[in-house]
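User: We ran a pulldown and think these components assemble together. Before we commit to crystallization trials, I'd like a predicted model of the whole complex to look at. Sequences follow.
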Amino acid sequence: MPKPGAPPLDADLLQGTLDLLILQTLLPGPAHGHTIAHVIEHRSDEVLQVEHGSLYPALHRLQNRGWIKSEWGPSENNRKARFYRLTAAGRKQLLRQTSRWEQLVAAVNSVLKPARE
Amino acid sequence: MSWTRFFQRRARREESAAELEAYLEAETQDNIERGMPPAEARRAAHIKLGNVTNILGNMAQQDSVSWLETLWQDVRYGFRMLLKHRGFALVSLLTLALGIGANTAIFTVVDATLIRPLPFPNANRVVMAWEHRMPDGERQNVTSPATFLRWQQDNTVFDQMAAIFNDSSILSGGDVPEQIATASVSPNFFSILGVNAALGRVFVPEQDGKSNSNRVAVLSFDTWQRRFASDPGVLGQAITLDDKPYTVVGVMPRGFDFFVKQGSFSQKKPQIWVAMNFSPENRTSHGRYLQAIGLLRQGVTLGHAQDAMLSLQSRLEAEDPASMKNWSVNLVPLRAQLTGEVAQGLRLLLAAVGMVLLIACANVATLNLARASARRHEIAIRMALGAAAKRVVRQVLTESCLLSLMGGAAGFCLGYLCLAVLKSIAPANLIPLDALRLDWRVFAFATAVSVLSGLLFGTIPALDAARTAPREPLQEGAGTVSSGENRGVARRILVVSEIAIALVLLMGASLLIRSFYRIVAVDPGFRPQNVLTAWVQFPNARYQKDEQKNQFFERLLDSVRAIPGVRSASADGFLPFAGIIAATAVQVEGRPVLPISQLPVADVSLVEPGFFETLGIPLISGRTFNQSEAFQATGNVVISQSMAQTLWPHEDPIGKRVTIYMKRDNKPSTVIGVVGDVKHAGLASAVRPTAYWSYPELGFQFMTLVIRTDGDPRAFIPALREAVLRIDKDQPLADVVPMETLLSMSVARTRFATQVMAAFALIAFLLAIVGIYGVVSYDVEQRGREIGIRIALGAQRAGVIGLMLKRGMVLAGIGIGLGIAASLGLTRLLTSVLYQTRPNEPILIALDCAALAMVSLFASYIAVRRITRIDPMAMLRRE
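Assistant: Here's a predicted model for the assembly, 996 residues in total across the polymer chains.
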């Protein structure tokens, strides 16, 4: 549940952010779509609300670009689920995008700072 | 985008659906664990996921190759639009097809004839060497053995030279004896051309043609197939030509032929080559009958060779003035020689067909421009409804391409048809029919030009319309036509040029047609109807004595005359329209003796009694030969009217004596009669003075039978063959053809060129009409509102129609004016192929202009006619 004073943000707000989050989620190991959505929401203290509907097209897109791979396997409760895994290209992309993200944050911060003071 | 994804998209869609199902189950499970009832849990999961169909659609979008799918949409839409505007589509298609088809066909012929390399490896270095009878006589005259041998021996510019004598021989030994075209060639002939035998060998200079005892022959591929059933064992076999044995040493490759008609005795492509052998008594300087070819030394130019041969020729003249005075030398490159006859005609056709293509392009452009401005409205509406400009332009482009591709395909089929028609109407030996293949390069070129013009004129206006603010054309539809006026000018210019070009073609064609009819209307000087002709040639060995030949003809003519239905029969040495004649100098008795080269020249032929009566050549004075002159030489001669006028302008020639330099003894002959002139060399040729001797005077080895029959002469062919074989079973008949066929063959080439030209003119004419119809009907459409107002205000419909017609006629008038100016310049190029027809005959110009004007008026009227159906109120309300 979102906390008061911190309204939920749509992960689509910044284009490419969702991709970055997905790739980051997959860094420790393979996961299926449901898990990915929950992990993102959980880690961001529910601030980032993944529109579950847009998660799947995003996964599809990342796979088409060769950054992730998928295979069918049994889920935790032994159902059939599609597991996604980072590829080497995906790892590189994650690094690139993370650093670009940090640049962006820094830049935005430096623009915003004078207003805060 | 990837093609693999595109083609797996169905499987991937199923997978995605399964994945979403798996998500829903997992989420439902979570919700149940949080304490929701199962139904509620499932519902909440669905809410959280969102619209499954949308998600799947989103994913599928990524798998599709989107431009391809929208292209397909565009194509379908394009087809619908073309179907909707059937008239426009059909006319464009036809225009493209005609332009592309005609060009493909003609260029294919040009390519096969003029452009493709000759099938002789040394072709670029081979030249023909002719003697040139000065001062303005035949430039390509055959030469004598003595001259040729000196050329061969003393020239400084050729690696080798070879002589050729195109002959006609009897090939016997099979079931039926056969008259066959042969060539006697110097043994190095094949190596000069650089061509080897397909089977066996060609002649070897050191061993073949050395003596009479060692006779060798090389067969053409066709003869080998036809007469020897493609038997490889033919090598070393003996064949009999003119009763003499020859050994076959080789077979030439399929399609090999080398035939220069000029100076040829047989007038046909040789089927068998034999090695030439100059016996000492053959090396004479009188009697010119050899063609000569030479292989230029590496690095020697034609001009240099010509100079060197000229100085050699003047040396020969100094040595032997009697036979060499006034005989110069003329070198002609092989390609020019082989294609010279048709090259000019082909260039003419190429120019004509190029004009057809121009008109076709102009038409496609005009049609597209008309459509594009009509479309401004449609485009404006689509863009007002939110269509992207890029998308709209692409749609128009797709449509143009579609039309162009279909036009190209139709053009290709049409080109194929045209080629088939050309092949069927082309006279034999005019173009290398076997080498005709639909030429892809020119097809690609013609298609590209038409397609480009379609794209250019279809798309640029669309781009323009898409760029314009959508509001403007919507308003425009309700009022002025101002901004459409610019495009109107472009279309008018195109139509005016179309009409001008069409007029040029029309003038060219009508000149050729008029000239052709003037040629066929020429009186040949005899009556060709119901006359059958057949070539008879004796082998030298069997008929050596004059009596034998005389007897043969006496018996043959007797038995032919006995065939029921035969009115009369006779024979002639050189039949009119058969292509050959012998010419010589003549000296009138009692006049100053001049050198041979300065004497008047006359054609000479030999005839059997009854020849003039049989062919219907009128007797003007004196008498023709009687039966007794069929058996012995009496020294009498019958001359043609023009010979009488040339030699005895103001005297009665009967009883006068003249020496005709063709016999060994050269005794004078006595003129016993004068007959009418005959157009011997063809209807368009000038009449030449001609002398006729009776057959025994020279006793040729060949004669042509002429038989006047009741009814169709073809019906008498079997009886004639039988009559000949009854007399000599080894004696073949060749070239059995009605005289009328010979006559029509002699104009076949002119007829062919005229037909093709007329076809092009017709196409151009039709296309120009379509063009003017398009412009005028577009005008009417654009001015619908104006017309409505005029009529509503009381203008007479007839007056409005007249006004619109005038606009069309002004265009036609300008086009015709320009066309006249252009044709006056261009038709002069036709002068050399026209017969008694000036390139600027006022009547023809008037007729052509009138025809074009009339038809333009008609096309405009059809376009304008719809004004009569306009309801002024409805028209005003619609706007």
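The interface with chain A takes residues 2, 5, 15-16, 18-20, 22-23, 25-27, 29-30, 48-51, 54-55, 58-59, 62-63 of chain B (CB under 8 Å). That may be worth checking against your pulldown data before setting up trials.

User: Thanks, that helps.
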